[in-house]
Structure formats: structure tokens, C-alpha cells
User: What shape does this take?
Amino acid sequence: MDIHALQQIVHQTRDARRKQTIPKFSPADRDQLIHKYHPDYRASAYRPIRFGPNADDKTVVELAALLEGDSSIPEHLDLTPQYTADVLVIGGGGAGCAAALHAHTSGAKVILATKLRLGDSNSVMAQGGMQISVAPEDSPVTHFLDTLKGGHMQNDHELLKVMVEEGPSIAKWLIELGVLFDRQADGNLHVKKGGGSSKPRLLTCSDYTGLEIMRVLKDEVLNQKIQLLEFCAAVELLSDDNGQCTGAIFKDLDNHRHVIVAAKSVILATGGIGRLHIQGFPTSNHYGATGDGLCLSYRMGAKLDHIDTFQYHPSGAVYPEQLIGALVTEGIRSEGGHLVNAKGERFVNELDTRDVVSSSIIRECEEGRGIRTMSGRIGVWLDTPLLDAEHGPGTVEKHFPAMMMQFERFGIDISKDPVLIYPTLHYQNGGVKIDANSETNVKNLFVAGEASGGLHGRNRLMGNSLLDLMVFGKRSGLTAASRAGSMSQGKLTLNHLKRFRAEAKKHGNSSGVISPMILPAYTRKEPERTATK
Amino acid sequence: MAQEDTNVIDQPEVLRHKMVTIEISGKKYEVPEGITVIKALWHTGQEVVRGAGCLGGFCGACATYYRTKDDPKVRTCLACQMAVEDGMSFTIMPPFPARKALYDIQSLKDPKQDLFNLYPEAPLCRNCNACTEACPQKIDVREGVWKAVFGDFKSVSEMFMDCVMCGMCTPVCIADIAPNLVALYVSRAQGAHFTEKPQGLDLRIKEIQDGRFNDEWNKVLAMNEQELADHCATVK
Assistant: This one.
């Protein structure tokens, strides 16, 4: 059937739905729903890791293969460094830029290396906003409790307390750098309510929050003349005789040469794993989100935390084909947008946590109340025109210009017609285990941002990621920089790799893949021949 | 179920029935109709390192020039956000060597005057409007440059909130202005110097420093797992 015919039910039921209130699930119902429908509970997608710091822990097969993968580096490689730094930051997204800027400001010599361009990251796409408890009726403690609840009580309390308490000073820092957060009429920061939060707490820059923050941070990295190594992908870390981190080996993606960097501390800010397409899911993630930092730190002996849990953002686009997996911001639901099944019914409180909302959508689709596309996709409607009906014409256009434009390019006016959505692989809830200074159990190896684990428990709350990046980017940068003065550069060896390879051999060898992946293999090397005309 | 039918890359199975002929940097290829420009590059076997970033229309890495069949007009797009059609011709824009001024945003004394020191070419706009026509984000770039020059920093910061810094406005400028970089400076100056300081934020920072929440923290952090879960459930 024509899509417009299918959309009619959404228009017809809109007024009736506006009078409805959908209660949130009780804790017991919520657990039952998640266990039945959330992809984290699909046992066949998981297997135990055979060796290494997390031996016998389960994770998704795609990640397990990379963690057990071999390094591309031969053990006899000449390790004479081309570059030397106090602090080597790997990754050019939000956490990497924040780490580099804070380390630099404290007087350290910083090198920032990234496999694509400075700023190419998931951070730049963050639309929903950044959770910081600035409203008078809110508090860091409430932020803490909301996050804990969203994370199924599994969050590391110490990390979480640090994040919520440092939030306001991060907002101040960003404002001083020129970030234009939305304001109230009285000049105070405007706050929006996000899914799973009890108070309005989202600071926003319309629906370009991540882009605005990243424009400013990138510009600041350039202004501060921080040394950059762009298009350099980290392929191995370096360690001294005591197993402490002392640098990294990169592959220059332009000329394929190895670049050796000696550093007193290394900060991995390499982001998430969406491009592994776990369980075949499409993803909202950027081109380079291939979990490189997890593989690098795992070989070095760093312990991972909560790597069996991933966030499937409830609203990934399903139609048109070109936008599959692209995010439809949660802001739509924050402002009252309904999720509607093929029968025109709401089926979940739209502001419940992401794992609950995603599980409900999957339930609707599995039970035959989804809408199919010609390509065999399935989804439910997100009633975007409702926002104009509720808050006045022009609301969608004014509050969600990025999204309007994204769909307009394909001839779809989301202020007039609902959009078809299905969960999309969005975020790695866990990662490398860190302490409150963002350091791993490997001395002088720091991990910040999405690559780290513990803070978000088993489900990250909307808007906590941007704050995580800024807070732990800062703490890793400051801690690493503060050490630089009193320590000397350690030896550069591949002893950890020898150990890892020996252990792999003991357990029947590596998985056979080379990790990190660096970029997903989307290029068709042998395009099929088509008939000549 | 959707995820089980999904080919990891995209949807060529459903679209393969109709192939279209396109030209990539002058060379002809056949690709499935309707895939994005960036997917067309992958489809034709090209390794993409430069020219792809977020794949979501936000990072500006994939700025592209394209032309549709028989139309002389060369247009711009983001390769991850544009579908291919029969007879289309395109090439990814190489990084353009525009000059970015260096500045310490916080220590500027007179940001509106400093604009002319940092970007002395900014007032030399000759009104050709090529920048506006080149913008894939539909920003009225020319108007923005003039507003910057006349000191209306607030309007510029609002107009350029959509800017993905793809830089397509720079190679077309006959006055050698880099409008996106000018706008970035102006927006940062607007935020750092001409926007009201949020009083509530400073108050909250002081409350945290003064330990206003300490009692509540002590109470919460002393709870055992069950007590904490029960307490969380009361937060509405």
C-alpha cells in the first residue's frame, strides 16, 4: 500500500490519542519486557570470550572476535619514535578534544591523533542535548538517582557522582568558550525533559547540541595549536617492562606507513562500536565507530566492564531507504510525540528509558502490529505532526531544523506526515573499566567517553553521553598532564603483545581476524558485471 | 523480522532491479537507483577514507559537487544525504586550503572590531551570492557575511547554527572569504562575549562547592542496594 494511505490511521487517531495517558511500566513488567524483547537478551548473539582480562565473560560474537583478534604489528618492528609527547590523545571526538584541551592548558605537550579528521565522531551528531542539573528544582543527587534507575542500578557510583557534580562547571567552561546553549527569557539556561529523567535537565543548542559543541572544541584545538595527526589509525599500544602504557603505533591511512609515538600517558577516546552492526542492526554511528580502543586496551591487559550491553536507540529511521539507521532525535518524544502502531494505538510511555521503549517497539513488530516497507523493513510510526497540533504550527520546523532538512531532502515533510522508525544500534553502554580519574587498571592508560565503561550501567540515560565526554575527557587530560612533570618517558616495547599472543596460542589461537578494524568493509571489491547496452 | 533480513551495508537486493548510470569523477558506472552518493562510491569498489565522516549529515566531510542529467548547473550536496539518479555526475570536494585565523576567544577586548583584524577580507564581499547558492544547508551565507561585518553577531550565530563546516562556501568566493570560518568566529564571540551569563548556573556551582547537597549525598551513598532501589523508585 502507498505510504500515505498507511499514514492515515495516525492522522485519524491523533485527537483521541492526545487525551490518553500511558502509565510507565512497573519494575517487574519492565524487566519482563526487556528480557523478552531487548536484543541484549538474545542468547544466540552472544558467546564467552576465550582468553584475556575478561576470559569467560560473554559479549556479542562480533566484538568477541575482535577482542580475540591478532595485531597487525610484527614483534620485531623498529620502535624508534617519530613523535614524543607528554600526553597522547587517540580520538578526535568530544572526549578526545576535551582531554587534549585540558591537558594542553595544564602545560603538557599534547598530540591528538585520529583516524579520520579532527571532530569526525558520534559527538557531532548528538541532537538530544546534555544533562546537567541546573534548574532550581533539580539537583546533582536527583540526576544521580535518575541515571542509576536508567542504568538498572548497575552504574559505578563513584564515577556517576563525579559526573553529575562536575556537570555545572562543564557548562560554564563551554559557555566561556562560546557554546550557544538555548536560553530562557531571563537569560538562564533552558532545560528540556529527557526520557527516563524526573526533571527537565537537558541543555540544548536547538537539535544541533553535539555539532555546536564540536564546532567550538575543534576550533579551540586549532587555536591552541595542539599537534594533530589526522588520518592516523592506532593499531597497537606500547608498554614498558612493567606493563605500563608508554605510547602507541599508528598506521598512516594515506601512505600506510607506521608512525610510532612515545608518550608518558595515553588517553584512548576512540568511541563506540555501531559499525560492527551487532546482530545485523543498522546504526546511527559514524563511519569510524569500530571499537578500536576496546581491542587495543584489551591486548594491553585492561579489564572491560558491561560489554554485554548495548543501547538500541528506539527511533532509527526505517524509511526512506537512504536514511535507514539514521537517528530521529528523542527530542521529538520529549516534546510529546507519540509512538503509534499499525492499528493507530500507543503502546508505551514514550518517555520511558530507551531500553524499555526499544523493547516495546520490537514487541509491537514481532506481534504483527508493525508497518512493513517494500525492502522488508518493519517499524512503527512516530507522530511528528502531533507537535505542531499540540504546540502550534511551525513547532517541528523551529525546534528540529536538522531533522526537517534531513527528511526534506527526500521529499518528506515531517511536520505533515509521521515517520517510520525502528530501534537502531546507537551506543556501547559498557567499555574499558576506569577509575574516577578515567585511568584503567593499566598504569598511564586512560580511557574517556564511549570507549569507557561503568558509568552508565546497563543502559545510558539520554543526554548523559555528552556530559560523560566532557567530564572524563577533562579528568583524564588533567590527571595525565599532572603526572608528566614528575615522570620520565618509559621504554617502548611490545612485551604486552608477546604475552597476548602466547595466551591466544594457549587457547587455540586468535580468532583469525586482525583488530582493530579501523573502518568497516563497505567497499565492494568485485562489483558484479552488468550487461552492456 | 527486520534485523534478520538486513544486509549489513544497505538495501541493494530490493533496489537491484533498477540500475542507473552515473559518472564519478568523470568515469561511468552502473549502480542501483536511489542509493546515496557515498554508497555509490562503495558500490563501485572505491575505498573511502577521506570524504566520509558521520554518515548522518552533520560533519561536513562528504561535501560533493554534482550535476543532474543534461542540466548545466553544478550543485552541492553532502554525499551521505543525497540519492543518486540516472545521468548524475559527481565528484567529492577535496579539502580546500582556506585560511583559519587563530585567536584566544576569551581574551578578545573588542570582538566586533577584532573581526577586521582576524579576517580583513570579510568586508570585501562583492555580493555575488555564490556562497549562498553553494550551501547544502540552505544558509543565506552572503547575508550572514554582511551581518557579521555590520556587527549583528546574534543573527549570524542563529543563521549558522545549521552550519556543518563542509566549506563549500569557500572555493566559490571571489573575495577569498571563508564564510564558514568567519561565522564560527562570530558565533563563538557571540556566545563568549555578548550572551547573558546564566545566574542559575553560577548559583548551582556555588551550591555544590559549599556542600549544599552533602547531607543528601551521605544519605544516598550509605544505602544498601535494596534501599537505594526503593529510593530510586520514589523519584518521580
About this structure: Strands of chain B lie at 19-24, 27-32, 63-67, 75-78, 89-92. The two ends of chain B are 35 Å apart (CA to CA).
